[in-house]
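Hey,

Quick one before I head out. I ran the complex with NAP overnight. Inputs first:
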Amino acid sequence: MIATNGYAAQSATTPLAPFAYEHRDPGPNDILIDIQFCGICHSDIHQARNEWGNAIYPMVPGHEIVGVVRSVGEAVKKFKVGEIAAVGCMVDSCRTCESCKAGEEQYCDKQATVFTYNSKDKNGNLTFGGYGEHIVLDEAFALTVPKNLDPAAAAPLLCAGITTYSPLKHWKAGPGKKIGIIGLGGLGHMALKFSHAFGAHTVQFTTSTSKIEDAKKLGADEVILTTEEGWAAKHAASFDFILDCVSAPHDVNPYLSLLKRDGTLCTVGVPETPLSIQAFSVIARRHFTGSMIGGIKETQEMLDFCGEHNIVSDIEMTSFDKLDEAWTRVIKSDVKYRFVLDLKTLVE
Ligand code: NAP
Ligand code: ZN
Ligand code: ZN
């Protein structure tokens, strides 16, 4: 077994603390990664605090992982020892159902997606994520990071990147389209970069005055401060697609009213309480839907796109001794725009 030190939540109410655990010995198709960097996703906080009601403890969060391959099983083809490898939100799935065969393993029809943490693998063992020294996984679920990208700033692409790239692609953000992004956080700032890179007219919605100038620099054609009176009026019925990247409960009805006929509001944010939709917001044939991360093939496509276009996350490096503070700042929407943990700061 691979002895590993990391940080775990032991309950919904206790802060993360040092924790020693084991990963399986790598099998023929597995790689063992020494983790260098792990992004802090708001989903880490939702799950560790059991805000989605699905927590399994002890929980070692982290699914925006970049590291160095330390060993490879004899059947491994994609990676060599010493290369950089990355891991996102999934480490396995059934691989045989229609969704898995279509490269949409996150929607596995047998509900057999194995998530990187807070999940059980095929043998019933709890999975542990990126807030720790190592991870072992089948190479089929590991990703390659383009060499020109800074590995720390690339880490958030593994969740915030693919979660926003996938729906923007699916709903065809591009030239001639008016696209809205709600919330300029970890996901939101990646959505903004992608929508701009795809050539869409991109409008950023924010509750933070302090982010207006940044939003323009990140690629927004327009920025709307939603704390201002009457902010929605002049944009009524004008959007093709809006991506909701907000982590907390909020009213989606004003945003639905901004959609054209047959336009779509897609949530990627997962607040802990239900969103309520007035029938009047959707009866003009407006669609409300959601999207979850993205498949492995599309994640590699997204990373390659980022390599070609030099897209990474705007990050603030942090350390394990400041983890509590970092989480508090994420909850206050006070990070520009993603924290990344440096695994060198792990104290055993
Ligand atoms: P984050 O960095 O905390 O960003 C959330 C943003 O939402 C904030 O920066 C803020 O933007 C806005 N916001 C926060 N509280 C708000 C409130 N009360 N009212 C209105 N706006 C508010 O979080 P994240 O890591 O990007 O994650 C966002 C959400 O996506 C989380 O719920 C996370 O669990 C979920 N998620 C889902 C998937 C998926 O597969 N669907 C994957 C990853 C994450 P402004 O300051 O600009 O207003
Ligand atoms: Zn995430
Ligand atoms: Zn499947």
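The chain has two domains: 2-158+314-345, 161-290.

Talk tomorrow,
K.
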